[in-house]
Design a protein that fits this description.
4 helices, about 80% helix, elongated
């Protein structure tokens, strides 16, 4: 018999937070490349790319009802926290960086709760 997968309200929120974060990080990459300087450093761009990728993967794992989604959410939370901290370093007077940091923090917390709930 097939396993029924129910997406809870909290999981829907986490999926949306992940999708929002993936989108914002991708948008922020372009902003950073256009801004240049420390914004365009390879390590910062790589972190934004990593964050967008793990957020998209985590959302997909939850949508598919993967038995591994708590583990991807745990990693997603860690990467989102790091990305938020990196964006905050460059946020002074920069609304794009502030928005990215806030979105990453929200996703990190949402994924942390999801990972803990499934542990």
């Amino acid at each position: 018999m097939a396993h029924q997968h129910e997406i809870t309200t909290e999981m829907r929120r986490c999926i949306q937070d992940c999708l929002d974060c993936a989108s914002i990080c991708t948008e922020t990459i372009n902003h950073c490349l256009m801004t240049g300087g420390k914004h365009a450093e390879a390590s910062h761009i790589r972190l934004l790319m990593d964050c967008a990728a793990i957020c998209a993967q985590s959302a997909g794992f939850m949508l598919r009802g993967s038995q591994y989604h708590a583990r991807t959410c745990d990693v997603c939370s860690e990467v989102c926290r790091a990305c938020a901290e990196d964006c905050e370093r460059m946020a002074e007077g920069d609304q794009t960086m502030t928005r990215c940091a806030e979105t990453c923090r929200r996703c990190a917390e949402s994924c942390r709760r999801m990972a803990m709930a499934m542990a």
